[in-house]
Prior knowledge:
The chain is α+β, with helices and mostly antiparallel strands. It has helices spanning 5-26, 31-43, 45-52, 101-124, and strands at residues 61-68, 72-82, 90-95. Strands 1-2-3 form a 3-stranded antiparallel sheet. Helix 1 packs across helix 3 (45-52) and helix 2 (31-43) packs across helix 3 (45-52). 3% of the residues are buried.
Amino acid sequence: xxxxxxxxxxxxxxxxxxxxxxxxxxxxxxxxxxxxxxxxxxxxxxxxxxxxxxxxxxxxxxxxxxxxxxxxxxxxxxxxxxxxxxxxxxxxxxxxxxxxxxxxxxxxxxxxxxxxxxxxxxxxxxxxx
Length: 129
C-alpha cells in the first residue's frame, strides 16, 4: 500500500505525540520531558492538536522514514521490545527489506562510515601503545 507524504507525516505526528504521552505517564516528574512537552506546543500547532488527542500508545512495530545527508531517504521497519530485566528500557531494532533501495543505502552508509573512521585514524597518527 502506498501512502501519500501528507498521510505519512500525519501518522508520524500522531505517533510522536502518543509516544511522548506514554513516556510522560511512565515518568511524570522527568524534568527534560516536562520542559519538552511544555515547549513543543508553543512552536507547533500540529503538536498542540496531537497532544490534545490524549492518545497513548506503545508502538511495537512501525515504518520509519529517515533522511540521511549522505545516502538520502531510508524506509526502515521498526520493531520495539521492552526488556523485562530492565524496566523502562526498550530495545528498538531497525531493518531494511533485502534488496531494497534502503538496504543498498545502508550498505553505502556502512562503507562511508568505515572510510570516515579510517581517515580519522590516519589523521590521528600512530597509536603509542
